[in-house]
Amino acid sequence: MRLDEWVKLEQLDLDSVETVVDEKVEDKVTSLKMTRHQKRKIDETHVEVGHEELDAASLREHEEFTKVKNIATIELGRYEIETWYFSPFPPEYNDSLKLYFCEFCLNFMKRKEQLQRHMRKCDLKHPPGDEIYRSGTLSMFEVDGKKNKVYGQNLCYLAKLFLDHKTLYYDVDLFLFYVLCECDDRGCHMVGYFSKEKHSEESYNLACILTLPPYQRKGYGKFLIAFSYELSKKEGKVGTPERPLSDLGLLSYRGYWTRVLLDILKKHKGNISIKELSDMTAIKAEDILTTLQSLELIQYRKGQHVICADPKVLDRHLKAAGRGGLEVDVSKLIWTPYKEQS
Ligand code: ACO
Ligand code: ZN
Question: Which residue from 1, 89, 269, 303 puts its CA 20 to 30 A from 246's CA?
């Protein structure tokens, strides 16, 4: 699914192509034609569009437009990274295959010399905002999109290169960005981040999450997820990630939820309810239910759903859930929930 390489015809297994979909495609085309007429008016009123708000036809147009990657590679700190998806950089950047990012302020440029000149002037050595966590070489910075608008926008442009399904929010004012860095004597190097709405009616505690490709599969993703729940615990709220989740997002969340819940169930003696699990972990009850259901740990007995946790079964599931990822040391988190300043 990722647009991270060109493949040769020999690499495709054409025998596995299914032909039975024809009828459905026909149906879709007909309904697309109909909605195309109807949607014009809607289009004019939707300036900022999230995929949820698009009808089938506009979604297809959007997909057509963003199908082809515009930027092939980026340079960021000591890495050259191949991108995965289209990102709506301002039009003047669209003729460049490669963009050069300042790894600290995330300003981007078309030529290496411009970046070199910028690096001589740029005095940032870490993301703007407050350092709210430091443990060993790992630091987390909280960046308010309202106070650091350009940084927030740059981060969204960068992130979209690796996120397929997310709409880019220009309105970064409404978000806080949690930027995870590995620090050394040259500065704090961004590893990944997550964004969070300042106020979420749907109890989302995370909007977008990204680990930059050179740092993936090292446990940073699970660290970011765990961190988002630690913030929710401090707020005294339950949270859930914004939907839809990507394939990698779902894998990471499922792994996290499984490990956290089964660890508790293993240690716990006696009965425990989903509500209690939710209070302990800040994981939303629905996510607990779907996780336990997918592990077949929920049974229906005497008209009630009950959690059945045989220790051997738990061990098997825990083993399958993979490594735990990097731990969040809560004693190193210095943070108070966001409050609007008058
Ligand atoms: N193939 C198979 N499984 C994978 C892969 C992969 N390429 N990447 C992650 N996983 C699974 C594994 O189970 C892994 O655990 P394991 O290594 O112990 O087996 C687990 O997910 C998470 O591994 P981490 O190392 O903790 O996570 P990582 O730092 O790689 O970050 C993330 C995960 C953030 C989802 C990353 O893949 C990413 O940035 N992807 C691109 C952007 C994206 O899709 N973000 C989520 C969108 S949904 C949303 O934003 C709400
Ligand atoms: Zn800079």
Answer: 89
